[in-house]
UniProtKB/TrEMBL annotation, chain A:
Keywords: Cell membrane, Membrane, Transmembrane, Transmembrane helix, Transport. One of its GO terms (cellular component) is plasma membrane. It is a multi-pass membrane protein. The keyword Manganese does not apply. It is found in: Cell membrane. It comes from Lentilactobacillus rapi. It comes from the Bacteria. This is Phosphate transport system permease protein PstA. Gene3D superfamilies: MetI-like. Residues 63-281 form the ABC transmembrane type-1 domain.
UniProtKB/TrEMBL annotation, chain B:
Keywords: ATP-binding, Cell membrane, Membrane, Nucleotide-binding, Phosphate transport, Translocase, Transport. Gene3D superfamilies: P-loop containing nucleotide triphosphate hydrolases. It comes from Lentilactobacillus rapi. PROSITE patterns: ABC_TRANSPORTER_1, ABC_TRANSPORTER_2. The keyword GTP-binding does not apply. It comes from the Bacteria. GO terms for molecular function: ATP binding; ATP hydrolysis activity; phosphate transmembrane transporter activity. GO terms for cellular component: membrane. This is Phosphate import ATP-binding protein PstB 1. The gene is pstB1_1. GO terms for biological process: phosphate ion transmembrane transport. InterPro entries: AAA+_ATPase, ABC_transporter-like_ATP-bd, ABC_transporter-like_CS, P-loop_NTPase, PstB-like. Residues 24-263 form the ABC transporter domain. Pfam families: ABC_tran.
Length: 296, 268
C-alpha cells in the first residue's frame, strides 16, 4: 500500500468515526429519554388531566392542546406558504424585490423563537386583546413556521423538472393551469414531507408559546365541542398549555410529588411524536404520490 | 472544415403555392435573447402532410426556430417577423396563444409525462377545456394511443402512473397526449435523443404513419434519422437557415458547400 492510499484510508476512517459520533449522541439522547420516560407512560397518563399538587397526574389536556394548536397553525400557515412559494418559484423575476422577499424569509427563519413569542405576546395577546389563548399561540406559531414552510415548498416546486411546465404550456394550457394542475401535484410528495417535518418542529416548540398560548391548562369538557363555549376543547380563546410548555413549566416550578416521573414521561411522548413525524415524512409523501398518480 | 468563403451563400427552396398546400411558413423571422440575435434568415414553407427535419450543429438556432413556431419562446425571447399558419400571422399579440399551441402541438426532447395515470395524461388538456363525457374521453384515449402505436402495450394498464413507463413508451404517450387536442401540426424537438435504438426506430415508424394526418416538423441531431425519415430538410448554421431542399437532395447533392461539409461529417 502506498502513501496516498494510506492517507486516504486514514481520512475515511476519521470521517466514519465523526459520523458514528453524531449517531451515537442521538442514540444516547433518545435511548436515555425513552428508558427513563416510557415506563411512566400509560393510557391513563396519556388521557388524564394534569395535577398540580398530588401524584398521578397525566398529560391528556396538554397532548390535545399540542395537536389542536398544530392543526390550527398549519391551517393558517399552509395557504400563505403555498401562495408565497408558488409566487417565488414560478412567477417572481430575479430582481431586487424578489431578493428582498428572500432575505426577509431568511431573517424571519433565523429569529430566536423566544423573540417571536414575545412579539406574539405584544401583538396578539396585548394589542389585539386575544389574551393567553389558542388563537394567539396559533398565530405566533404561524410566524415561526411560515419561513421554513415557504422555503420547503419552494424547494419542492423548484425541483419539478422544467419539462413538466413546458409540457403543460405546449398543450395550450395557461401558466396558472400548468402550475396548479401539473407542477403542484408533481411537487406534492415534497410538499407533504415538508409539512410533516415542519409539524414536528411546531409540535416541539415551547418558547414561542409560553407567553402566547399560556402556561395553564384549564380542565376541558370533552363532551362539549361547540367552539364558542370557553371550556370546549375547540374554543380558540381558552389558554392552552402544550406538552412542550408543560415540560418546561413543571421542571421550573412544578411542586407535584411525582414531578420527575411526569416530566420524563412527557419528554418521552414528545420525542416519540417528533420521531414519528420525521420518520413518516418521506414515507407518507411517497405513498400519497403513488396513490395520486395511479388514479384518474 | 468550415469554408468562410461560402458562408453567406444560402439556398432556400420555395414551393409554388398554386400547386402545393402550405400549412405553415415563416417570413423575416428574427429571434432575440435579450439584445443578441439568436436566429434570423429562415423564410421556410412547410408543406402539408410532410415531415420536415431541422438539422444543424448545437447552437445553430434550429430549436429556437422550432419553439418560435408555436410561440413557446414567448416568455424567453423576443420574436419578430411573421409566422403564417393557414395564412394567418400568429405572431401577433391579439392571437390566442393557447389556441395556437393546441393547433400546433409539441413533443419535447425528454419524455415528460405528468404525474398522472396514462389515461389522465391524455385526457388532461381536454378536461381543462371542459370535456367531461367519459365516452368521448375513452374514445380519444384509445384513438390517440393507437395513433402513437403504444395502445397494445398500455391498454391493460391505462390507470397506471405514466411516469412508470419506459422512455420509448412514455415518449409515445406524450405524442398521444399532444394528439388528443387535435392539432394540425406536430413539432418535435429531438424526440428520440433520450431513446434507445429500437425505441427510436419504432418512433420513426409512428411518425411516418402520422404524416398522413399531420404536418410534422422535427429537430434532430441525428443526420441518419433526418435522411431516413423526412421529406424535406433545413440545414441551420450560426442562427440562420443555410439550405432548405428535398431531403434526398440535401444528403446527395447539397447546393451549398457548408451543407455538404456538415452532412458529410466534416464539422458539427
Amino acid at each position: 500500500m502506498n502513501q496516498t492510499q494510506k492517507q486516504s484510508q486514514i481520512a475515511i476512517l476519521i470521517l466514519r468515526l465523526i459520523a458514528a459520533f453524531v449517531v451515537l449522541i442521538l442514540a444516547f439522547l433518545i435511548g436515555y429519554i425513552f428508558i427513563t420516560g416510557l415506563p411512566n407512560v400509560s393510557w391513563k397518563f396519556l388521557t388524564s388531566p394534569a395535577k398540580a399538587f398530588t401524584a398521578g397526574g397525566g398529560i391528556g389536556v396538554q397532548l390535545f392542546n399540542s395537536i389542536y394548536l398544530l392543526i390550527l397553525a398549519m391551517i393558517i400557515s399552509l395557504p400563505i406558504a403555498l401562495g408565497a412559494s408558488i409566487y417565488l418559484s414560478e412567477y417572481a423575476k430575479d430582481n431586487w424585490f424578489t431578493s428582498m422577499i428572500r432575505t426577509a424569509i431568511e431573517i424571519l427563519s433565523s429569529l430566536p423563537s423566544v423573540v417571536v413569542g414575545l412579539f406574539g405576546f405584544l401583538l396578539f395577546v396585548v394589542q389585539f386583546n386575544y389574551g393567553f389563548s389558542i388563537i394567539s399561540g396559533a398565530l405566533t406559531l404561524t410566524i415561526f413556521n411560515l419561513p421554513l414552510l415557504t422555503r420547503n415548498i419552494e424547494e419542492s416546486l423548484a425541483s419539478v423538472s422544467d419539462d413538466q411546465r413546458q409540457g403543460g404550456l405546449g398543450l395550450g394550457l395557461s401558466k396558472y393551469e400548468t402550475i396548479v394542475h401539473i407542477v403542484v401535484p408533481a411537487a406534492l410528495p415534497g410538499i407533504i414531507s415538508g409539512v410533516i417535518l415542519c409539524s414536528g418542529r411546531v409540535f416541539g416548540e415551547a418558547a414561542a408559546l409560553i407567553y402566547t398560548a399560556g402556561q395553564s391548562a384549564p380542565a376541558l369538557n370533552f363532551g362539549d365541542w361547540n367552539p364558542f363555549n370557553i371550556d370546549s376543547p375547540l374554543s380558540p380563546l381558552r389558554p392552552a398549555e402544550t406538552l412542550a410548555v408543560h415540560i418546561w413549566k413543571i421542571n421550573s416550578e412544578g411542586i407535584m410529588p411525582d414531578l420527575t416521573k411526569v416530566s420524563s414521561g412527557s419528554a418521552a411522548v414528545l420525542v416519540l411524536a417528533i420521531l414519528i413525524f420525521n420518520l413518516s415524512a418521506r414515507y407518507v409523501g411517497r405513498k400519497i404520490f403513488e396513490k395520486m398518480t395511479s388514479m384518474n | 472544415m468550415l469554408n468562410t468563403k461560402n458562408k453567406s451563400d444560402r439556398f432556400i427552396y420555395h414551393f409554388n403555392p398554386e400547386e402545393t398546400e402550405i400549412t405553415m411558413q415563416t417570413k423575416n423571422l428574427e429571434v432575440y435573447y435579450g439584445k443578441s440575435l439568436a436566429m434570423h434568415n429562415a423564410d421556410i414553407q412547410f408543406q402539408k402532410n410532410t415531415i420536415t427535419a431541422l438539422i444543424g450543429p448545437s447552437g445553430s438556432g434550429k430549436s429556437t426556430y422550432l419553439r418560435s413556431l408555436n410561440r413557446m419562446n414567448d416568455d424567453i425571447a423576443t420574436v419578430k417577423g411573421q409566422i403564417l399558419y393557414q395564412g394567418v400571422d400568429i405572431n401577433q399579440p391579439k392571437i390566442d396563444v393557447y389556441e395556437v399551441r393546441r393547433r400546433i402541438g409539441m413533443v419535447f426532447q425528454r419524455p415528460n409525462p405528468f404525474a398522472k395515470s396514462i389515461y389522465g395524461n391524455i385526457t388532461f388538456a381536454l378536461e381543462r377545456r371542459g370535456v367531461h363525457d367519459k365516452r368521448v374521453l375513452d374514445e380519444v384515449v384509445e384513438k390517440t394511443l393507437k395513433q402513437a402505436a403504444v395502445w397494445d402495450q398500455v391498454k391493460d394498464n391505462l390507470h397506471k402512473s405514466a411516469q412508470s413507463l419506459s422512455g420509448g413508451q412514455a415518449q409515445r404517450v406524450c405524442i398521444a397526449r399532444a394528439l388528443a387536442v387535435e392539432p394540425d401540426v406536430l413539432l418535435l424537438d429531438e424526440p428520440a435523443s433520450a431513446l434507445d435504438p429500437v425505441s427510436t426506430q419504432q418512433l420513426e415508424q409512428t411518425l411516418r404513419e402520422l404524416k398522413k394526418d399531420y404536418t410534422i416538423i422535427i429537430v434532430t441531431h441525428n443526420m441518419q434519422q433526418a435522411a431516413r425519415l423526412s421529406d424535406y430538410t433545413v440545414f441551420f448554421n450560426l442562427g440562420e437557415a443555410i439550405e432548405y431542399n428535398k431531403t434526398r437532395k440535401i444528403f446527395t447533392r447539397p447546393k451549398i458547400e457548408l451543407t455538404d461539409d456538415y452532412v458529410s461529417g466534416n464539422f458539427g
